[in-house]
Design a protein that fits this description.
Elements (H helix, E strand, L loop, with lengths): L5 E2 L5 E2 L6 H11 L1 H15 L3 H7 L1 H9 L12 H28 L1 H20 L4 H29 L5 H26 L7 H7 L2 H13 L4 H6 L3 H12 L5 H15 L4 H4 L6 H15 L3 H6 L1 H7 L4 H29 L1 H27 L9 H19 L2 H12 L5 H30 L2 H20 L12 H6 L4 H12 L2
Antiparallel strand pairs: 1-2
Length: about 500
């Protein structure tokens, strides 16, 4: 066997290497890109529930909330212009991710992160100074473009820097930062909502500039990944970086595999057309379905409009913000669970368990709202009943936070061969942002029309995706990123596509 290379118990290659302080710091700094995404998810719902914000930009919604002229309590925040404020960010992220794909491939992962920070800083400045709806949405679009660059480059960066057996833990650092960002946004919203003069929302929107500054400056000091350096022809530098991040000089076997993968990548002139080939059908399917499934759990709809949702079903202004803050804290703590066990129990186990927990909790929440509010929402919640609703939403969030939340980013970032990695991650991010933007735009309208049934709707999707995982998602824990093809070859269904492609090539 080649020097330095060993085999794991499941027959996959294992390369020498350990968790070095250098790679830990690099991954921690890169993960700060998740703070931007998480902060923007969390800040939207809190800001759109503030009276001063609604009165200035959305007076019709403010009037409806105060005068309560609607015959249906579920519909008091149903405004397409209001939801456009939230959804515009994700549409911008969708478009930006395609440009980010090219930048990530041609210039490296770190410069995509740098671009992310610069654009978000511009958007944060405009949002903080917004005097009309145009400035408000323009700022959100710029922040969204930055989110697209960060979400495209950071997960790939983390997966390529991490040793195979620690890839899950380090990659989930991105999701951890997202959840911390949500929690910080909820905490800030709770404080700024009570600022006299009604300008606290400006602070909430502008403070996304802080994580943007961190990733802008931090990316200047980050090394690019060995994979990216080899791909761009800097082989000696890549070898030096690989030795540094693995903490050993016995990196020849891993380096040789990187070079081989790079040579195959260079031969691919059009990765976007190459990714649709039959031999990449497993990865393309996951790039499409995993982000779709992650979003149709309803998670971001609940996070984006958490305070609005709680306000709609009878929580007071401060109570709704506090409930969102509690849920954000639960999500942060639960993400640590995933970090601790993802490389031990594996991806499939967490997805199956988390999916089951989410199904049960969504059905219970929908039933609790139905019992109390019926179809018209003409009721108020007692403290005991309110705590019960929040408790089951917290359990739902916990299930998501240690399963589909982090793994929805981890799995797509680790399954693509180098020659289609940028294109595959771009598809993953774009679809994630597309479904998120649709959720953001239609959630309040769906809640108005479907009422408590909306929770049953989302639980139905979680049932479908849990079955999909059981049948079609192979386990990828501890598999070196450049050896991932072996996982698909062994799978009962996806192996057929690779075998058929190999047979076709051999007959030419």
């Amino acid at each position: 066997m080649a020097g330095g290379e060993i085999m794991s118990q499941n027959g996959n290659k294992e390369y020498p290497g350990k968790m070095t302080f250098f790679v830990f710091l690099a991954c921690l700094l890169a993960s700060s890109g998740g703070l931007i995404f998480g902060y923007d998810i969390g800040v939207s719902g809190g800001v759109t529930s503030m009276d001063s914000f609604l009165e200035k930009f959305f007076p019709s919604v403010y009037k409806e909330e105060k005068e309560n002229t609607s015959t249906n309590q579920y519909c008091k925040f149903d405004s397409q212009l209001l939801t456009a404020f939230t959804s515009s960010l994700y549409l911008a992220a969708l478009i930006a991710s395609f440009f980010a794909s090219t930048m990530t491939r041609v210039f490296g992962r770190k410069w995509s992160m740098f671009m992310s920070g610069i654009v978000v800083l511009m958007g944060a400045t405009i949002n903080g100074a917004a005097g009309n709806v145009f400035m408000l949405i323009l700022g959100r679009i710029l922040v969204g473009a930055g989110v697209g660059f960060a979400n495209q480059s950071v997960p790939v960066y983390l997966s390529e820097m991490a040793p195979a057996r620690l890839r899950g833990m380090l990659n989930i650092g991105f999701q951890l930062m997202i959840t911390i960002g949500v929690f910080i946004a909820n905490f800030i919203n709770y404080g700024t909502a009570n600022i006299s003069g009604g300008w606290g929302w400006r602070i909430s929107l502008a403070l996304v500039g802080i994580p943007a500054t961190v990733i802008t400056l931090g990316s200047l000091f980050l090394p690019d990944t060995p994979n990216s350096l080899v791909e761009r022809g800097h082989k000696e530098k890549a070898k030096a970086i690989l030795s540094k991040i693995r903490g050993t000089n016995e990196i020849q076997d891993e380096y040789d595999d990187l070079v081989k993968a790079s040579e195959e990548s260079i031969a691919i002139k059009h990765p976007w057309s190459n990714i649709i080939k039959r031999k990449y059908r497993p990865q393309l399917t996951m790039a499409l379905l995993i982000p779709f499934f992650q979003q149709v759990t309803g998670i971001n709809a609940l996070m984006l409009y958490g305070p609005v949702l709680f306000k709609t079903i009878g929580f007071g202004g401060n109570a709704s913000l506090m409930s969102a803050l509690i849920i954000g804290l639960v999500k942060v703590l639960s993400t640590f669970v995933s970090i601790a066990i993802v490389d031990k129990l594996g991806r499939r186990m967490l997805l199956l368990q988390g999916g089951t927990q989410m199904i049960i909790c969504q059905i219970i929440v929908g039933t609790l709202i139905w019992i109390k509010f019926g179809t018209h929402g003409e009721a108020t919640l007692s403290k005991t009943y309110a705590r019960c609703v929040v408790s089951f939403i917290c359990l739902y969030m916990a299930g998501f936070a240690w399963s589909w939340g982090p793994l929805g980013w981890l799995i797509p970032s680790e399954i693509f061969p180098l020659e289609i990695r940028s294109a595959g991650q771009s598809i993953n991010v774009s679809l994630n942002m597309l479904v998120t933007s649709i959720n953001a735009q239609v959630f309040l309208a769906m809640f108005c029309r479907m009422k408590f049934g909306l929770f049953y709707f989302f639980s139905g999707w979680v049932i479908i995706m849990t079955i999909f995982v059981a049948l079609f998602l192979p386990e990828t824990k501890n598999v070196p990123i450049e050896e991932m093809i072996l996982v698909w070859k062994k799978h009962w269904f996806w192996g057929k596509f690779i075998e058929d492609e190999n047979a076709r090539v051999s007959n030419i």
